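Hey, resending since the last one bounced:
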Amino acid sequence: MNARILLVEDEPAIAEVVQFALVSEGFQVVWRSLAREAEAEWAAAPYDLLILDLGLPDGSGLELLKRLRRHSDVPVLILSARNAELDRVLGLELGADDYVTKPFSPRELAARIKAILKRVARPAVSPEAPPSAPLMPDSAFAIDPVRAAIRFQNRSLELTRTEYLILKTLLAQPERVFSRAQLMDQVWPDPAASFERAVDTHIKTLRAKLREIDPTLDPIRTHRGLGYSVQIRPRV
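The structure tokens again:
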């Protein structure tokens, strides 16, 4: 693998272990110890994945994640000594793809990174690729799996990777009720490391983006105690 990884970690000993493990797996790793250095680095060059510590000398890693998610859906793996459930939930809700606690196994870390990159990989678009097609003639949605794009009411949705995968899963079987656990199995690289509240957060942001296009429609339905489904035809 030649994926480029930005490591944001303020402890040199840990950074050295991570770099050695990932370079041995064929990754390119750039290490930065401060939040401001990391922001400057990802603004200057593209990266395939970010490994993020939460306790940085010049700021919170969670705040750094929030700023990143305003304009990028680059995969993020949090690597932190904080192992409380609240920290894990918050990190995932803010858009992290995985959360690994210290002390950690370098081999497991490399395996988790490979799983994330495999899940987010997108096939190349061929010139002959067909345009987005509606799921049904009167559907409000059109999906293009080749381009990893979804349209709603003939307008493109600006989705993060996680939002795209959740909506794609719901659209694959319209009207079917998916539990939170089923959505986690389809979307997260390691569902066991995630929390059901993270699903609710992404559903909330999805609804907000759909309302921006058409405030009169609310195609994602909540089934209390069960989960979520999607209605693909505009309601009359």
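The domain at 133-230 is CATH 1.10.10.10 (Arc Repressor Mutant, subunit A).

Sorry for the duplicate.
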